[in-house]
Design the sequence.
């Protein structure tokens, strides 16, 4: 079972094909992770697909997102209407998975 911050971190790592341990809450999406707006929207769509909230994720919430922590907060706010968002059992996979790290 994953908390929202882990879901976001693992989804980012899969998209970037990096070791999830390299992504921290302070990582800046554009400056540090070199993500463009379309990448962040793609991440949002992947997380939204896990149905953490009861409605569509409002993409406009991404306008003020700068760091991974900001992104996590946006998803936590969205999922807050669901009582058990910390207990969602998800499997995060990518069609072309990142290499394994040891």
Sequence:
């Amino acid at each position: 079972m994953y908390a929202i911050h882990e879901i976001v971190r693992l989804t980012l790592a899969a998209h970037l094909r990096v070791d999830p341990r390299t992504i921290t809450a302070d990582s800046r999406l554009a400056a540090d992770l070199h993500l463009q707006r379309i990448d962040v929207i793609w991440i949002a769509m992947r997380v939204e697909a896990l149905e953490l909230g009861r409605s569509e994720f409002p993409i406009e919430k991404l306008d003020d997102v700068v760091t991974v922590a900001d992104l996590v907060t946006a998803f936590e706010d969205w999922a807050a209407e669901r009582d058990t968002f910390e207990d969602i059992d998800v499997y995060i996979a990518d069609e072309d998975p990142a290499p394994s790290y040891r």
